[in-house]
Amino acid sequence: MASPSLTTQSFSSNIVGPDEPKLFHKEKEDENNQILQKNLLMVSELPSEKGWLSENIHLYQGFWYSTGVLNGLLILQQCFQAQPSDILLATYPKSGTTWLKALLFILTNRTCIDNSEKNPLMTTSPHELVSMLESYAAKNPMNPRPSNSLMHTHIPYTSLPESTKSSGCRIIYVYRDPKDVLVSCWHFVNKLKPNEIPQISLVEAFERFSRGVSPYGPYWDHVLGYWKASVEFPERVLLLRYEDMKRDPCFHIKRLAEFLGHPFTTEEEAGEGLVSKLVDFCSFEKLSNLEVNKKGSHSGFGFPVIENKIFFRQGQVGDSKNHLAREMIDHLDQITEEKFKEFHLINTFSSEEDEISVCPIDNVI
Ligand SMILES: Nc1ncnc2c1ncn2[C@@H]1O[C@H](COP(=O)(O)OS(=O)(=O)O)[C@@H](OP(=O)(O)O)[C@H]1O
């Protein structure tokens, strides 16, 4: 039997609709601008560096953010109210967000998994179905809570709004080999950037990523924040690793369902049951080949139009070996070892790297 849905799905947004009186629009716009101005003043006093795209990024509470994201984060810290039934997916960028958004959406709406129009994932990007909190808050500063209880953020654990910790809401954190994260992020940023902005080279991206100066970086502190929380509050924070999920997705989906308090039934787990259907539907091959993800677009991250296809590239473990030189790989592995050693997260990525053939350094662009 299918388990009940965990979320009340409503695809309406909290943005003022077209029927609202013009005056209301104007007042709302003025209020939004006041909040923005106040936050910008605060941001202007923070340490800044050149970002991966054209604009500067700022150091706030030990992590780097673009101005728009930081504005969203400040709004969330000021007034976001989490509910105990909320489910928050947290990730460092390019660690499996799109995949987990799709999986969690289906997991919490188990009745609608099929290839018909009734399944929202057939026609809508996972990024539209599961809102990113900081981006939503920047657009809706007076009411920064999306209507769905399934939400996503890239914000590090230590900077999350207090209510996400005190409410007891569930947090699922996915992390991935930092070398693959760097390469995925570099490809993404260069696809996202407007034509008039020059590309960031991989060497430059590597240098900044290694120093921790990357969007929401340092990567290592990001992972450790959630790792520590999962050790302290295992009933509230679940850590998943992209590579483990690729190896045995069914096993980890079952873990996920149990963590959310809605384990699968024996029937759902068996053979071609719901678990394997769900895993197949959310696989890279299936999702990336849906019409909506090949041809569709949505707005977000401060961009009016983002093509859905740029969230799907290869979906493989270890692609970084095709881009990074041996020296770069060794350097990133060394940082990972130093940072993670005392927390027993050491060498979690070594098995993928044993038989790698790597790019000569001169070939890295
Ligand atoms: N369904 C599925 N299964 C496995 N892997 C997938 C899936 N969908 C997307 N991807 C790969 O995930 C990478 C994008 O990361 P994110 O989704 O975290 O990006 S973002 O933070 O939301 O921008 C990016 O990784 P790379 O291919 O290495 O660049 C995507 O290809």
Automatic annotation (TrEMBL):
<dbReference type="Pfam" id="PF00685">
    <property type="entry name" value="Sulfotransfer_1"/>
</dbReference>
<feature type="domain" description="Sulfotransferase">
    <location>
        <begin position="84"/>
        <end position="343"/>
    </location>
</feature>
<dbReference type="InterPro" id="IPR000863">
    <property type="entry name" value="Sulfotransferase_dom"/>
</dbReference>
<feature type="compositionally biased region" description="Polar residues">
    <location>
        <begin position="1"/>
        <end position="15"/>
    </location>
</feature>
<feature type="region of interest" description="Disordered">
    <location>
        <begin position="1"/>
        <end position="20"/>
    </location>
</feature>
<protein>
    <recommendedName>
        <fullName>Sulfotransferase</fullName>
        <ecNumber>2.8.2.-</ecNumber>
    </recommendedName>
</protein>
<keyword id="KW-0808">Transferase</keyword>
<comment type="similarity">
    <text>Belongs to the sulfotransferase 1 family.</text>
</comment>
<dbReference type="GO" id="GO:0016740">
    <property type="term" value="F:transferase activity"/>
</dbReference>
<dbReference type="InterPro" id="IPR027417">
    <property type="entry name" value="P-loop_NTPase"/>
</dbReference>
